[in-house]
Amino acid sequence: MKHNALFALSAFALAATLAGCQDQAGGGSSAGARDQIRAVGSSTVYPFATAVAEQFVQNNPGMKSPIIESTGTGGGMKLFCAGVGAQHPDIEDASRRMKKSEFDQCQANGVTEIIEIQVGVDGLAFAQSNEGPAMSLTPEIIYKALAANPFGATENTAEKWSDIDPSLPDIAISVFGPPSTSGTRDSLAELVLEVGCKSDPAMKELKEKNEDEFKATCTKIREDGKYVDSGENDNLIVQKLGANPNSVGVFGYSFLEENRDTLRDIPLNGVEATYDNVASGTYPGARPLYIYVKKAHVNVIPGLKAYMEEFAKGWGPDGYLAKRGMVASSEDVRAKSAATVTTLAVIDGSDLK
């Protein structure tokens, strides 16, 4: 009798706990359950996430269209990691991998089960108007042009590209790029600026001795107008290049691909930003794209699992996302991502940086 009573009490407690979790994700009795998926994050992933949303609505009659917001990867992570419940987004779109500090912030705010899915590959493209003077760049040249204090110097005094390399056009350095909240800006720092900075042996030694000082020296961008923070709108950069033919733009490969009629890519280390070069990793600016999903929301927010499955239907080499400019991940990565969509496996954060 006692055993049965104890079992009944334990079962009741477990049911109450599960119900409470669902109520929290649904928003609680006061907030009401949300009946639309909400995603925030990367401006690079934004057009792909909206394309998936369109397919999701077509394939799921009666479901409301997901709300997709372009907040930048960093800004989106703050919103995503703020908590569980209807007042918080379900998905974070990211043009870089989640940082360990962001994972820890999620954990501290009760976002304890996070699903990580690589949805494709993108290239960090450097582009210019077809009307501008053709040029080719390297990470070292870009670093010398954009760094606030190149290799620890007091300030960056380079005014023209020809000041850095006489073979480059004799025109003013003018770069339109992403803000500090953007994953694209993080990729610019990691894939290009740090690589260019380490062309100096002293900077390689600095990285080993003092990581913080290395980051400050190698990734801080000058603020004298040579680099223009253009917000979380890559299309705006495309427009600015049309009006400023001598300028350089930095954005996701898909935006270059969609505007080849007016723009050309600037080769990096002599490698052009093409689909095949990005897919193979030959292009130095190649980077993975992700979505992060709160597992606590999956069975509570209507259609969330189906939206994840819709992503998987479109991310192949012949899928509709490739037609929008996304580069497909390798076959083994796609298989792993598809398995994650099915199993809803979560990350433990141990290999994040």
Commentary on this structure:
Helix 3 links the parallel strand 1 (38-41) and strand 2 (67-68). The protein has 17 helices and 9 strands. The radius of gyration is 23 Å and the shape is globular. The protein has 2 domains: 31-121 and 288-343, Periplasmic binding protein-like II (D-Maltodextrin-Binding Protein, domain 2), CATH 3.40.190.10; 123-286, Periplasmic binding protein-like II (D-Maltodextrin-Binding Protein, domain 2, 3-Layer(aba) Sandwich), CATH 3.40.190. The chain is an alpha/beta fold and 353 residues long. The protein has helices at 2-26, 28-31, 46-59, 73-80, 100-108, 139-146, 161-164, 183-197, 201-209, 211-219, 234-243, 253-257, 275-280, 295-298, 304-314, 320-323, 331-343, and strands at residues 38-41, 67-68, 91-94, 114-129, 175-177, 227-229, 248-252, 263-265, 286-294. The chain starts with a helix and ends in a 10-residue tail after the last helix. Strands 1, 2, 3, 4, 5, 6, 7, 8 and 9 form a 9-stranded mixed beta sheet that branches.
